[in-house]
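Exercise 7.
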Amino acid sequence: MPAPGQFARRDIRVIQDADGTSVVVMQTMVPAGSDKIWAEDSGGAGPVILLLHEGVADARMWDPVWPALTASCRVIRYDVRGYGRSPAATENYTLLGDALTVLDYFGVAAAHVAGCSMGGGTAIELALVHPARVTSLVLLCPGIPGYAYPEDPAVEARFDEAAAAGDTERLVRLGLEQWGRSGDDSFVTELMRTAMRAWENEEHFQQQGAPVYDRLGELGVPVVLMVGDRDNPGLIASNEAAAQRVPGCELIRMPGVDHYPTVRAPQLVTEAILHHVSRSPQRAVESQSGRSREWDV
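Solution. The predicted structure, written as C-alpha cells, is:
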C-alpha cells in the first residue's frame, strides 16, 4: 500500500473547528492500480464515517449532510472510478476493493459505513467479507446484490431507444422518472446527468461483487436501513425484505423521499447517522439479540 499522498496530488487545507482546534482537511487522488480515485478526508478526532455514493449520483450527494457530519466526526468520501472527480477506469476493479483501498490510504482500520443504493450494496459486502473493518452500517435505499429485482421490459425498452438515438436529455428524464419521483430539483438533475456519463465505462470495467442477500442474516454489526415511500416500488420491496433478514435491523421509512435521501431529507439522514454512530455499542447488543424495529417518520 502506498504511503498517504505517494504518487497522488493532494489539496490540504487547515480549518478552525468550533472550539478553535485546527483540523486538516484533505482532498486527494488515491492510487488504485493503474487508476486514481478522488477522495476527501475531513480530518478531526471523532468517530470515522465512510460515505459510499449511489449509482445515480457521485460523492456530491453527501454535500447537504457534510457540514453537520464533519462537525463532530471524521468523515471520508470518494467518487467511484468514472464518477464525479474520479477519472474513468482503465482496468477491471471491484467496488469492495476500492473501498478497502480508500480506507487503507487514510490509515483507517475500521469505520462506521453509510452507503446509498450502489454504495449500500458495497457497505453490506464490506461488512460481510471484512467484518473487522466495519463498526456499524447505515443503509440508505440500498441496492442488494442477490435480490431478485422484478424486470420491467417496457422501461428498459424506453432506455434502449433513447440510448440508441443518443438522446441524453431523454435519458436523464427517464432516469428521474424512475429515481427522482419527489419532484424537480436542479441538483438532483445534475447528479443524474453526470452519473450517466460513468455508466458505459462502469459496464466495461466494474466487476460484480458477491451476492449478499442470502447472507444478510450473518451481519453482526448494528444496522439502520432507511427507505423513502417515493422510491422505486421494487427497491422498496427489496429493502423491506432485507430489513426482515438483518438481525436487529432498525427500518426507518421516509415520507415523500425518493432515491436521493440526502437531498430530499438531509436533516433526517444526518440525525439518523449521528444517532446511530453515537449509540453503536448499545445497538451492537440489540443486533446480537436479533430484535428488529421499524419506524415511520
